[in-house]
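Sat 14:20. Reprocessing the chain from the morning session after the first attempt stalled halfway. Input below, unchanged.
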Amino acid sequence: MNRNLTSSPLGNNLLLRTDSYKVSHWMQYPPGTQTVYSYIESRGGIFSHSLFFGLQAYLREYLQTPVTRDDVEEAALLMAAHGEPFNREGWLRLIEKHGGLMPVRIRAVPEGSVLPVHNVLATIENTDPEFFWVTSFLETELLRAIWYPTTVATLSAAARTTLLRYLEATCDDPQGQIAFRLHDFGARGVSSLESAALGGMAHLVNFMGTDTLAALVAARRYYDCDVAGFSIPAAEHSTITGWGREHEADAYSNMVEQFGKPGATFAVVSDSYDIFNACARIWGDELKAKVVASGATLVVRPDSGDPAETTLKVAQILADRFGTTTNAKGFRVLNNVRIIQGDGVNLDSLRLCLSNFFHNGFSTENISFGMGGGLLQQVNRDTMQWAMKCSAMQVNGEWRDVYKSPVGDVSKASKKGRLALVRDANGVENTVREETLAAGQADLLQTVFENGRIVESTTFDAIRERAAIGVNQFVTSRAPL
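Finished this time. Tokens:
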């Protein structure tokens, strides 16, 4: 063996990317088991629909890499110490017979698809009866690869729906404004670099603004997108407070000098001391002429206080100092300046801020939002009640339904049989048993991976197109604006 547990890269060995109890499952299936068939779904949660995303990233990064003898020996040593009965001979046989590639078939809806929860999104089954135990062994990483990016993409889509609702009510060009209304600030607040990359990329399915560079790398690597998102020059507190409180205006003036070019946009965090004084006396008086003359758009960033109250007060001060124009829908648009709220943003505070602007006559185009932990970190598997369950097995040549139906929680009842996803006459997706498909009826599930190879790929542009078509199905609120 050429490596050990202290030198092997974390996540390099597929055999160690599962849960401990999975290691003994090869001994637990009924005699004569040939095929294990499982599916993944969102069983509900806080959203009516899901925006499916992230599977191809996992397939490209992990599942095309073959298991090696070194992987097997590394796992065997660890499992012996860990207390699990490791299937060493089975994995060595898989290497001998399949070159270490996974003999499984994965089918899934096209990424970017928006469909009601409680539907099958992906299925997996082994393709070689000798390795029936591989299907469940892969559950841990396959479910993780889907639930996190899909949940973030869904959350981001819900935010887009809310923002678009207010833009359509208050803005002359809602479609032209939506792409940069919600910016990803989450890289530092997420649990890992990979989470930043996957979650940040999921957000970019719906928007074009991000400060999470890892998301750009991931979109290029996994979905062939040259540049998936964009940003602008922006200050942080240290680049303002480093000048000293008595030179706060000098710090702001320097930002205008450095970045205030005609047609440019730049952001300045302005709450280091007193956000309202900064807006009224520094930006709105001392530096007003300099901002206007620059030909740039200044974006003022409050970063403390109640989001809904603070952003409205900032808008009112800036309107008083810089003036406004009234758009065709009768809402005021700030001259020369905009606002970005990047603190305490979640779906609820977003809606409150937008409602405050609406009821005080300000167009939604005056404000954008930066969402960090609320976007990439404050989600978990229960947010959308994700599960991967076995629904069918082939034993001694006979297919049987497999399901759970716990008396204590009917919401955890699982589906039965081999599954297909169809669209009914009203255009609504429904999960049905595979054998009930009518002649010529399309199954929306596509084979994307088979026997160690990706057989169907997609692009980030295609995903965005599908998501844009489906995102209007999200219902985030029926309450009046």
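The mean pLDDT is 96.
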